[in-house]
Amino acid sequence: MKEKKTPLPALITIFGAKGDLTRRKLVPALYNLYTANHLPQTFAIFCIDYLANNEKDFKGELLAGINEFSRNGKAQQKQWEDFSANIFYIQGDFQKPETFADLKGRTENFDKQNKQRGARLFYFATAPRFIEIIAEGLYKNKICNSPAQHRIVVEKPFGTDLASAKKLNFFLGKRFEEKQVYRIDHYLGKEAVQNIMAFRFANYVFEPLWNNKFIDYIQISVAEEVGVEKRGGYYDSSGALRDMIQNHLLQLMCIVAMDCPASYKAELIRDAKVNVLKHVRRYSGRDVFKNVVRAQYTAGTVDDRPMKGYRQEEQVSPKSATETFVAAKFFVDNKRWKGVPFFLMTGKSLPRQASVITIQFKDSPNRIFKDDVESNRLVISIQPELEIGFLFESKVPGLEMNLKSVAMDFSYQQAYSQSVPEAYEALLLDVLEGDPTLFMRADQVDNAWKVVMPILDAWKKNPLKQLYFYKAGTWGPGEAMRLIKPYTDVLFQLPLSESHGS
Amino acid sequence: MKEKKTPLPALITIFGAKGDLTRRKLVPALYNLYTANHLPQTFAIFCIDYLANNEKDFKGELLAGINEFSRNGKAQQKQWEDFSANIFYIQGDFQKPETFADLKGRTENFDKQNKQRGARLFYFATAPRFIEIIAEGLYKNKICNSPAQHRIVVEKPFGTDLASAKKLNFFLGKRFEEKQVYRIDHYLGKEAVQNIMAFRFANYVFEPLWNNKFIDYIQISVAEEVGVEKRGGYYDSSGALRDMIQNHLLQLMCIVAMDCPASYKAELIRDAKVNVLKHVRRYSGRDVFKNVVRAQYTAGTVDDRPMKGYRQEEQVSPKSATETFVAAKFFVDNKRWKGVPFFLMTGKSLPRQASVITIQFKDSPNRIFKDDVESNRLVISIQPELEIGFLFESKVPGLEMNLKSVAMDFSYQQAYSQSVPEAYEALLLDVLEGDPTLFMRADQVDNAWKVVMPILDAWKKNPLKQLYFYKAGTWGPGEAMRLIKPYTDVLFQLPLSESHGS
């Protein structure tokens, strides 16, 4: 278990201070950590961006961000004033050496004032092209040179393919120790995702069933209601496989499929996850098209709002072959999972948002009831609802022995009155405390790329081959059904509490 | 599965028509079956008792009974009139031959009027001493002589010990075929009890865990808030072991511990249950006192009402050694259950009413979390709530990996709007349809007696040895704790929804 460290003064530097991530996620998360007394007594937040900015106006923007996006609603004036007194806007071009010279001076001042070397956290909330530039600036100026106390946080994408990811990891590895590098996949900080390990390994009843003898298939689906919005430029060079499957969905698969580590230590847990990725069957050639379905949305209607087709989106090529939908059937070829398909599904412009993990158990061998007995199903809902539901057969009350599937639910909202911490709160605190458990080690990133590379390669070679289309506001192309039959005919599971009204 | 038989005209005869059972249970159940169209088109209910009675007054009493005790509330006037037109009060002394001669004439008339031999159901809602007398009357007069269509229903107690039970079964066996004899244990007709088989055998995930490898202990507890009330005379010659353990609790144990029958056939299911009883370890001598704790309530307070001590109750001997509380530790010595204790607990004048089956799983072998991980528990609540709850470890929402036991619940009340049929409805319909699945075969009764006889014998030999006392309104004597430690320190489990408020 995580032990609370004696909190050092902490200096948090955010590169990309004017970006959406800072305003929507990072500052609201830091503010919530502050109000919950999770930040050290002494801290400062340096916010760097290249735009000129009046500090007061900038803080006003941050406050507006908290008021709009924080799970706890509007900030209290006194708390905000105390908190924001620690925020400093620094105008600086990441590409200019003086930016880092300036930062160096400020960081040293911070330590001097506190009469001890503090913790330093450098958050790269920037476009990927700045990662190496900023890293080099920090390195050359010896701003992030204490392996024990200085850390960088890098946002995905970690490269755009295996080669670039390796190159990036190599680059960072030359400048920092691996333990200084926190590659963030915010899915791993979600409460419901963190709970999966507790659920699997603190409960004796699940592990005996958690294998190919009892499990028929596993489905991990992340449905998004939104299209590419303003991210068309980035997205068109990326696509759903890179943007979602390579990171979020494969990481969820690791947590579901991993063996129990011998203890709750970051390296053992990350070893166990990498081990899953190493066992994922690699497809090549024809097998790619047989096991992975890609598609692109066309114009349609989501939730009564008309939606453009993907190729009509801003900054997207009208001839784009980039996929906005992927349905993939993976196998983990080890003793535990031999023969159990893992269906990983994601798509944009779908009818609604839902991230759900479904563990479908096999049929009971008992045949003493009528034929319509349904198999057991465990449904872990990550968003929007946080809940664990179990679907089982029960006698319908009445004078005949008729069976029906009913659900047992555990809902966070019902069980706990307080709201659940945002992923970024959990993850930022972990970085401050030096706990890398929920972050991606270099070899996790590499091995995730190894799973998707053959698919990317095959698609690159055949840009339009079996590129299917689905209308915005539908659950994806009919061809995806081919993949999941005969296991299921539901491409995206919903939380049990929604699919089974009481 | 049960198939609906073409419904023959049915003649239902209740011996003991003026008794509580008739008014509180049988007639409300028959009325509910009638209103739900489960009775045959043509039926008559003969109500026999030795008291003179005006039929109109008698029906008034029955109607009052429905209005007070039916799960569906007050009867509708038109329905009651139509239903009660089929009820006939017959004054008759069970000990006089003319009673049966009269009954014979009436039954034959019923068949004549309908121009076919109808089904006949003879319900012995009488004190046990009349069973043989009535059976003999039916037999001699050939009133119940069609093995396929004539049935008798006998209420417990089925004998007062093994010898008397065998004698009674032998007596009935000479006069009727076994398939005509329906020994009723109303616990088996309860919806939640019927559901246990569905739960165990229609869900693949439970059977693999349902054995000594994963289960630590099983607890079956039936707590009663009431004392002996007006039944002191009967109770003082019976006691909790005979009144509750020998029938209800051992039957629940059979359903929990049985193997899956090859098909849903009455004889296979009853075979599987008998097989459990045959494997129950028989105690003798000292082992009785080591494994079975008995006690008697003394004066106290239940739910703010002052309660007499048992020995002060009406018709109870002031020196009585009869137990009103039993806590027994049984073992089913077969491959599946070797080493798993089954704690059967029951008592009167306890703080509240609750019938609950607890399946306690063993500790997880994983030791990756803090030491305070609780083991999984499945809680099947039979009354007052009908629910299945599963207690499991989950991460407490928040920034640390802390675990807590939380509950998933399935509640009948929440899942189904209609009220659940009373046990007597289910059981009476089964008798009418000739389905003996939920009734006790002679060898079930015998084998249940075989389990308790050595205990009764040891107590008889040592009437006051280790007879403990507990104050009315407490959960039993401290000595019972000795028995259940180190497994648990809760003598009577409550439904999960009550013990774990949300």
Question: What do these coordinates show?
Answer:
Two copies of one chain form a homodimer. Chain A is 36% helix and 22% strand. The first copy, chain A, is of the alpha/beta class. A nine-stranded mixed sheet of chain A has the order 16-15-14-13-7-12-11-8-17. The longest helix of chain A is centred in the last third of the chain and has 20 residues. The interface between A and B is large, with 67 and 67 residues.
Structural class of chain A: alpha/beta
Report the average pLDDT across residues of chain A: 94
Low-confidence runs of at least 5 consecutive residues of chain A: 1-5
- Which percent band covers the strand fraction of chain A? 15-25%
List how many beta strands of chain A DSSP finds. 17
What kind of assembly state do the chains in view correspond to?
A: homodimer
So what's the overall shape of chain A? Answer: globular
Main β-sheet description of chain A:
9 strands, mixed
The number of helical segments of chain A is 16
Strand order of the largest sheet of chain A: 16-15-14-13-7-12-11-8-17
How large is the radius of gyration of chain A? Answer: 24 Å
State the largest interface.
A-B, 67 and 67 residues
Gap between N and C termini of chain A: 38 Å
- Assign a percent range to the helix content of chain A: 25-40%
